[in-house]
Design a protein that fits this description.
- This protein has about 575 residues and is mainly α.
- It folds into four domains: about 80 residues; about 150 residues; about 70 residues; about 250 residues, no CATH class.
- It is about 60% helix and about 5% strand.
- The protein contains 27 helices and six strands.
- Helix 13 packs across helix 14 and helix 20 packs parallel to helix 22.
- The relative contact order is 0.13.
């Protein structure tokens, strides 16, 4: 079923159901614009596209480094919220003066009138905000070497987004613009070279995070070993010998401890992805999901199998040849079935139950409503259901899918637990997505290639582990014939990648031309310039006035476009020097 979704999704994209709507389909994000000594960033972008895309370039929206301004706006919003709270409090009891302390959290400091204090603070912040906004709009250093470039047709946008713009492949980098809700504005101001350094550092950090997490994994495995606990803590022997305690330690305690260790991991991985500098929320979640999947694969799955085998057969594991490692792992796989059954019940079944009950959001809402909610706006924010966290749920589902593939032939008793999990997960998440969660953005099915690749990885791992297991049995002589399974799976992945992946990352020029033709017929009077000029404004500028680059009107377009050299010649009074 999962494999068959590739052609279906591709058909949806071709039909325009998943491909970005009009504003995104006509917008291209241009990054790493090279500096020019004679022109501003905006003028340089306009010249470049007037020369290289004269028939399709419409306008562009430059990007400002407004991170400091955004902090001021957020702080002012918080102060306004407090002001509304104290005004409402005063209106309910006019005879009682509203006072507060100016220290940390109002615990200490000078006692002042709350309404007067917040009114004065908002006035100061408004002046700072106006000054910072003027600085951002007038300071050339506040302009980021990036822009959202608009085109008159999808065909022109597709040509720009999917081709190399310069002989130097490190400048004028183009990609499809994410939809306006999907833009992560904080990372647009990061220079290209800094992005490379950040991603290298985060790759090193992720490696060490994954490697050193083997230590708590080994600790979790020792919890299931009653003999090891009795040797380390002999005074607990009378308690451990009780049947109830022994069942709990061997059954549920390892899964509970492992779940506790993994609670903060998605937040850490998302922070790392933000440091890496990705420019859209969808890409942040997609990259975080990839890290989380690799982490679960290495530590939760392979880590529990290999660490368990190493702890139980440490001497043999260290001194055996590399060819014997698959056999050792093959032997340890059935031994870990009990652990994974309890892990599925604790993390999977209990997780689905918690998801449908939403106990954590319910408790958090009542805590916020009791201690933090001051106005109706606060209450609306506290009641916000959020959106489905793809970066957390998708890798977990992939892990259970992998466990089902591996243990379907090794220990089939685990399959009912997997089937129950997927049945409940389908019902619960279908309900949550339709009736509970809000959709933050539309990514155009960009997640599916990663999902498909992880399914293939799960298939290959299950086949290799099956080969390792059978090599320990009497069927060892037939195992070489099973090598055809991973080979055929890899071939199938390459076929799907070549046949379907382009539909998720490339907009065919033929389809772009068809959509442009249909749009000209159905909406001949559409003013694209007015429609697109405010599509990608930084949230702190919405509702305000700021300078926009002028669009190129179709009536004013001329076959002869002034180049940068001509403009410089005209600026020098028309003088021309010979060679």
């Amino acid at each position: 079923m999962l494999m068959g979704m590739g052609p279906y999704l591709m058909g949806c994209i071709r039909d325009g159901l998943l491909w970005p709507k009009r504003s995104e389909a006509l917008k291209v994000l241009v990054r790493n614009v090279p500096p020019d000594p004679d022109e501003s960033v905006s003028e340089h972008i306009e010249h470049f596209y007037c020369v290289n895309h004269p028939d399709h370039y419409l306008t562009h929206q430059i990007v400002y480094n407004a991170n400091n301004l955004a902090k001021l706006v957020a702080k002012k919003k918080s102060l306004k919220n407090w002001l509304i709270y104290y005004q409402n409090k005063y209106e309910r009891k006019p005879s009682k003066k509203t006072t507060m302390k100016t220290g940390f959290w109002g615990l200490w400091g000078t006692t002042v009138d709350a309404i007067d204090y917040y009114t004065a603070e908002i006035g100061k912040l408004s002046a700072e905000e106006t000054e910072e906004k003027e600085r951002v709009l007038s300071d050339p250093k506040a302009v980021v070497p990036a822009a959202f470039v608009s085109f008159k047709t999808r065909w022109g946008a597709a040509v720009c987004a999917q081709t190399q713009q310069s002989s130097n492949p490190t400048i004028w980098l183009t990609e499809w613009a994410p939809e306006p809700r999907d833009v992560y504005w904080d990372n647009l101001a990061i220079p290209y070279v800094e992005l490379t350094v950040r991603r290298l550092l985060m790759a090193v950090v992720f490696f060490f995070l994954t490697f050193f997490f083997m230590i708590p994994i080994a600790f979790v495995q020792t919890l299931a070993n009653i003999e090891a606990i009795e040797r380390v803590l002999p005074f607990l022997k009378p308690l451990i010998d009780m049947n109830v305690v022994t069942s709990f330690i061997q059954g549920f305690l390892p899964g509970i401890v492992l779940k506790i260790f993994l609670i903060l991991l998605p937040t850490i991985l998302m922070t790392m992805s933000k440091i890496e500098g990705y420019t859209s929320l969808s890409s942040l979640e997609r990259i975080s999901a990839g890290k989380y999947h690799l982490f679960l694969l290495v530590n939760v799955f392979l880590g529990n199998i290999i660490t368990g085998a190493a702890l139980e057969q440490l001497h043999t594991f260290l001194y055996q040849s590399a060819a014997e490692i698959p056999k050792t792992i093959g032997v340890s796989i059935p031994m870990k079935a009990t652990f994974f059954i309890t892990y599925i019940m604790i993390d999977g079944w209990a997780g689905i139950a918690v998801e449908i009950l939403r106990l954590v959001p319910l408790v958090m809402f009542h805590l916020k409503n009791t201690f933090l909610v001051k106005t109706e706006e606060d209450r609306e924010q506290a009641m916000d259901p959020g959106s489905l966290c793809f970066a957390t749920y998708e890798p977990r589902v992939q892990l259970y899918f992998l466990l089902g593939l591996v243990y379907s032939t090794v220990t089939p008793i685990l399959l009912p637990f997997i089937v129950v999990f997927f049945a409940f997960a389908y019902l619960v998440f279908r309900h949550q997505i339709i009736n509970v969660y809000d959709q933050k953005y539309e990514s155009g099915a960009n997640f599916w290639p990663d999902v498909h690749r992880r399914i293939i990885i799960g298939l290959i791992i299950s086949q290799l582990l099956l080969i390792g297991l059978l090599s320990t049995k009497e069927a060892a002589q037939s195992t070489p014939f099973l090598i055809a399974l991973p080979v055929l799976t890899i071939w199938f992945h390459r076929f799907c990648k070549g046949r379907f992946e382009s539909a998720f990352v490339i907009f065919p020029l033929q389809d772009a031309m068809v959509k442009d033709t249909l749009e000209r017929v159905t909406e001949p009077n559409l003013n694209l310039k007015a429609y697109l000029q405010d599509a990608y404004i930084h949230p702190v500028f919405r509702g305000g006035e700021f300078e926009r680059p002028l669009a190129i009107d179709e009536e004013e377009n001329s076959p002869l476009v002034s180049t940068k050299r001509n403009s410089r010649r005209e600026s020098n009074g028309g003088s021309e020097t010979g060679n």
